[in-house]
Write the structure tokens for this entry.
Amino acid sequence: MMHKSKACLLIGLVLIFLFVGGVLLDTFNLSKTARGEKGAVSSNDVWVLSKIITGEARGEPFIGQVAVGAVVVNRVKNPNFPNSVYGVVFEPGAFTAVSDGQYYRPPTSSAIKAARAAINGWDPSGGALYYWNPATATSRWIWTRKIITRIGKHLFGR
Amino acid sequence: MKNWRGLIIPGLLAVALLATAAWGYGEYRARQHLQNRAESQYQKDALELSWHVDNISGQLAQVMVASSQEKNVIGLATLWREAFAAQSSIGGLPLAFIPLSKTEKFLSDVGEAAYGLLERAIQNAEGLTAKDKEVIAQLYDRSKTLKNDLSKLSAQVLHKNLSWTEVETAAVAQNKKLQDNTILDGFELMEKKMEEYPELNLSRDFDPIKPDTRVVREDKKIDAEQAKKAAREWWYSPGDQHEVKVVYQGVGDIPEYGLEIVPSPGEGEPVYLSVSKLDGTVLWAVKPRTIGPTGIDVSEAERRALGFLEKRGFKDVIAVKVEQEDDSAVYTFVPRQGEVLLYPDQLKVMVALDNGEINGFEGATHYMFHRERTLPAPVLSEKDLQKLISPNLRIELVRPALISNSRGREVLTWEVRGSYEDDKFAIFYNAQTGSEEEITRITPPPRFVFSAAG
């Protein structure tokens, strides 16, 4: 009888500890510290672009990251989309990284380099306005786009 | 009590349960608050969109009936502003799920037409021609449809208490078709109606030109092996033996091979290039290196960039812009035809400021646009030009330049570089008519420091 109640007490304490720990993590954002190199950018656009690239194309080859950035830049230049980098990035529903909060994490240094290249006109996507992952895309409409190229796990199209 | 010990665990668990419930309720309240904030933002954007489209429709009608030049100018300026505002509002709605290309194209057409006509209305005292009025009439037709649909939708949203955040949730759920979602259906219907209108033929003045690359360049259609050879010999030198991989092939503006030069041990990162399938020209190249502490200055970097270009056949190019970040500088170069700088044919070179190594080359624009042109002689002499320049500008240099104006047409101009207090400008005066084609502010934008995660 004694062993059983001791075990229950232990389990109860562990649960409470986990619960309290979770609340604290949530409150103080302890899981989201940023550390890393410093760099200066010459405008907010590169900053915003590097964050969207990190959120959308983390782990992609460098050229794939530049291509994602170029898609954003191409949209800014296109009359069918908002006229600024942040307008394009924050269009509700346009990028899953913004909707699910991935965007709000600090950018990787590779993404910053990619963002600078994309803002300065480098465009491996060949003028694309859309990109999607063929393995996970659920929208049927995206497949009506003309495919320009494939880099890494993304298809790029217009 | 004899068994109080047995009540400890249930007691603790009960407390934990109550605490969880309290926390859960707190979270629920916070979420409601955020949802209300989001909903009110969307409602605001939707109502503003309706209001701007209403204004556009009314303003188009006003332009049709106004007969004086000044009223035309004010009307067109208002139209241009409203079109821009409407585009902003529509960009704030959670409609990425529905492609609204025809609707958005309409709004941008209104803006483009208004701006183009505004330039003309200011220059000609007669105001708008009959053809211009035709364009306005067509835009007015479309605006009426849009206005009616949007006001019907707005009324429904208000009276039936429909929710925009529900639309957003539907968008996130993607393939799930939301039963009877009035808002989504309303916008889809509006887009369908816009699709039924024929493609608006804005007069050729408004269409930006984009030359067919196959006319400018040959169309030999090279294969992958030739492309690889072209890439390695271009980046290094003839006879180079680096291994090259094909990463992708593209069929965008220019059909291309995306290549990667595998670095030899000690060379660091790979070099990525794009080579045109038409004739093997290298379109762009990037080497994403982590750059060390600054070792060379901006003028030395410019010399390196020029050397890089000269070695690859780009002779007689002038640096027209430099964008400097902490560890690298991007130079924009343009070629010359005689004395005239050719801005549409620009090249960009990225130089690392630690050791002067070239980390990037952008030549796709040059590839698409550079050709031998017949340039007219300027009608406006340099002396007459001096009379046009504002006395507020402290002039630094004057030179002839070919630019692509806001309408996308190539125009021969006089470029005047100068400054006013802390701001630097490049002003371009049409060499035939003397009108101010472009004013560009070239003061470097403010910089700030930020941190990256590994």
Q: What stands out?
A: The first strand of chain B starts at residue 244 and ends at 251. Residues 215-369 of chain B form one domain. Chain B has a mean pLDDT of 83.
